[in-house]
Write a structure and sequence with these properties.
about 35% helix, alpha+beta, six-stranded mixed beta sheet, five-stranded antiparallel beta sheet, 21 strands, 19 helices
Amino acid sequence: MEYSFTVFRRRICAGIIILSALFAVVAVRLFVVQIVDGKELRLKAVDQWTRELPLLAPRGRILDRNGVVLVDNESAYAVFVRPKTVEDVQKTAVLLSEEFNLDCEKLLKKIQSNVSEYTVKRHISDEQYERVKSFGLKGVYFSEDPVRFYPYGDFLTQTLGFVSYDNAGQSGIEKQYDEILKGKDGEMLYETDIVGVEIDGTGASYLPSVAGLDVTLTIDYEIQQIVEQTMQIAYLTHSPKRAECIVLDPSSGEILAMASKPSYDLNDIPRKNVALLNSLSRNGLIADNYEPGSTFKILTAAATLEEYFNGNPRAFSPNYVFNSSRYRTVLGRNIKCWRSHADGKHSNQTIKEALNNSCNPCFVDMALALGKETFYSYIEKVNYGSKTGVDFVGEASGMLIPEKAVTDGDLARIGFGQTIAVTPVQLASATASVINGGKYYTPHLLKEVSSQKGVRVQTVAPEVKRVTFSEKTSKLMASYLEGVVSEGSGKNAYIEGYKVGGKTGTAQKYENGVIAQGKYVSSFVGFFPSDNPKYLALVIVDEPEGQHYGSVVAAPYAKTIFEGIIGVKKINKT
């Protein structure tokens, strides 16, 4: 009897343990289902008894610094078919194919398929939307599908960039700030039965889209318009490969305008010709390297003066008179001036006159006197050979011979702008640092980010990357460059009553390592007012036909741009 009771009690205990274990398993499973996997399972359940149509978020606008809308959205719609809810398949296929010029048989097969939704057409107009809606077709749905619109067409093309068919940024600012501009898509949900047929009387529920944020650029619409028109004239006049210009504020690094011709209308993108599109949409002002020629002499002169003021005994003083010979022989090779010295116009030259006359031998002397270590310290200080950090996709770094590998022959040519390649934005920013008091500002395009209701989210302040020159050197260089325009090679940029400074450049082009005969890059970098620079413009005309000197081909267009700025900004004479 006692044995039987013990066995019975053991069996009871075992049963309790087993039941407890089962309850524990069930409890754990319930916890996993309801807590751990709950959210995912609920989403799966919702997905089984609902069908959704996308509500695409409108992208944020792009504006100039004064609120002019440069990029906007146009109202448009997308048309969807949900095959399981279509009542008259034949009628639906015929009407939609006729309206949108589609293959009726292919559309009919799609409507008869087992897909849950099929996109018939995107980016349809308001008129098409109203017309298709009037057909009263069961199983046909619409959702907003905004289209990117560029109010000024061929304007700031390479800078603004464009979006894909799905409204994703593909180039320019549209790509650079895609995460800010794109917003968050919403959904329109329809309740359905298990096979996907909409349940009558349930209606639709909405998860609204969230519009992208607006991006305000440093670009000034008025100045951009002047630059666009001027570069178009330069392109039509000289038939170059490209005519381009960048304008920035030397006191902040803000880019005020960028234009390149030839170009295209952003509302009519040549997507079918990929090679043409890539060529025309490339922003060469940021992405392309070129040999700067004599515009580089600004740095050579500034480095020489700075070293002299710092007590370097090898540096030439402002009053030093250079050897008047047309030639300098370096490592057995002659380097000559562009002009014959027989007329005496290049004799008794100081640094100031050397800049006026753009005399190569003088800058050979300056570079060799500084030596590669010292000269390279200034080259790197103004960011040649490195990216400027401009907020734009695809920036190039320029091309600079490593300091350890540079010879005296290389150094001599670098002194007057050969054997080195820079980007236009590099040269503009470096020049700005020479004449603005000696501060290198990071060039930038973004000014602020805000909601479409005007609530400011982010503001970009000017960034001083480093100090490059003393104020003494900077002021002296600004006055020297004013002399280049008033009495030297840059006189075609002179504007009476205004203090304009600048430097011309004419560089031969190389192909396969040798000089390409008859091919030049003509340029001019200028600024005003020279005693307190607010506007700096770099004009580049690549391979002009006929005349090729920067003083003749580029400087006059800088003058036109400055005169335009003076007019729209109502700047008084000094």
